[in-house]
Amino acid sequence: MKRYGPERIRNVAVVGHGGTGKTSLVEALLFVAGAIDRQGRVEDGTTTTDFDPEEIRRQHTINASLAPVEWEGTKVNVIDTPGYPDFVGEVAGALRVSEGALVVVDARAGVEVQTEYVWARASERGLPRIVVVSRLDRENASFEHAVESLRARFGARVVPMHLPLGAEAGFVGVVDLVTMRAHLRRDGKDLAEEVPAALRAAAEAARERLMEAAAESDDALVEKYLESGALSDEELARGMVAGTKSGRIVPVLAVAATRLVGVRQVLDALVALLPSPAERPVTGTHPRNGAEVTVEPNERGPMAALVFKTMADPYVGRLSYFRVFGGTLASDSQVYNATRDRTERIGQLYFLRGKHQEATSEVGPGDIGAVAKLAETATGDTLCAKDAPVRLEPVAFPQPVISLAIEPRSKADEDKMGSALARLAEEDPTFSVRREAELKQTVISGMGESHLEIMADRLRRKFGVDVTLAPPRVAYRETIRGKAQGQGRHVKQSGGRGQYGVCFLEVEPLPRGSGFEFVDKIYGGAIPNQFIPSVEKGVRKALEEGILAGYPVVDIRVTLFDGKYHDVDSSDIAFQLAGALGLKEAATKAGLVLLEPILDIAVRVPEELMGDIIGDLNAKRARISGMESQGDGTTIIRAQVPHSEVLRYASDLRSLTGGRGTFTTSFSHYEPVPAHIADRLVAEARRQKEEAESQRA
What we know:
Number of strands: 36
Radius of gyration: 33 Å
Largest sheet: 8 strands, antiparallel
Distance between the termini: 68 Å
Strand order of the largest sheet: 18-17-23-14-15-22-19-20
């Protein structure tokens, strides 16, 4: 692939709801542009951008994938992105390095949940958008319905630039409202003809609406339009370019990708209407003094590049995808990682098309490439020239919303699991791993259950680690209801030196959140000073192991007020054991109670779904504390809810709201578990303890 200057590059993220035909459209763009010589199909697992075995099996995109095409002297770096909410991190990375978004909408469904999500993310970044109404050759497909849906949700700036020729199976081409020419696909050839007479009136009316929108993008065009009531083809085209780049116009195109209808016109629009990197210089900050630094898309300027995606491979190592914003990145060079203050060695650079790699000596400003085996660099890091350091804005990845416990199936799997999980976390910033020492579990977190299941599949397929997933344990606690005393007695005489330790303890509850307090009230040497820490150590160990159901005991004061010792047989271990026994006896007399963690939860949902969400929260033992209207058709419901009830709330909320709801949680406090639930938890804990003891026996 030849070298292109930044003014002849377009970077575009193909985004939209899952199942709208994004990958099929990208495949059609590649085929029509001559980048591939055979058009693959999603159903056959033969598309260029869905090459991962999991993508082929599931028949939908999981990873953002590059698909550069050359068209009309311009390089268009197309980035195919997933459409399912579990993989929105891939969308975030693609939008961060693009100058425009191609939003794909299904002709039958219109605007869907993920359409709204990607539209909002593109708006946050100020990206121009072009909408493609796809699958117009399918049964019940309606271009008019899709446009109405778009305008109802996103406003009057959404304007058709095409009209379809024919409908459903009879969809054969499009009318370009700028040139007023009909473009047909017939017998494997693209033809241009006059607009059919039957469609002339509708096309002229639609062109009039397009002309009004285009005129508003330029003061001179407004004046011309008001004076003459019309614009020339050239003026209309100029107005469309200005309006699209400024975001005042969102043109709508019509396509049937698998039949290649309207695909050439999409390529034309990407080149003509979207801005180049040369038109959008970016700013960063100086890594040492925080001063603002402008990064010019100039190949002779200082180099600055952002790593927006990392792929982990057990054989090749890490493959880092990067976008050069300024200067030129060369193979076999040294650069500075401004994010980590490290020098990085750059090996061979590549241009990617799906899994195909094409070696290149350099990647210029505005272009996208990849490099393998970076030692210090991770997703979101800035690579730059050492003498002109700059830190670019990293990718804003969403926070994980669901967690599952992960367990290795064998000792061999356990040995490999930690390093393999770390590699996957490097690859996907929306995936995290933590070790819960208290619960003796490794917990993985991500954007949804499908996301975590795919990560488990990758562990098996890429790293040979077989694992199981289960809901994580809840960090319950135990405490006492009242005040009581107990004796801890550990006395053994079996010939020779024995063991002797006796202590008397008093327990009493402390306010919630106080933790543990140990009080020494030994007088007159009832227990020698050197053994008092031994009693405390035994008490602490018993508190950690739990008494009622194996959970830590908290919010308790333990007072050591008396004891007995033996000059010969008393020892550190004897008083540790006595302390543990005394604590258990006193706590049992005081009355043990199980505590559960309570979370503050804020659920943002469309106002019309408030009743369903509140009903579901009430069924989860939540206490509603308030509701706040957001003024955009959504309401935030605030509540407190037991942690055990919302372990899978991401899936529940997605099901209840069709994906339109979001939520955040934070720890609030502990409070007693209802008796019927506590009884079940205690019985389960005892059963597990008995099973473990029988296995050891």
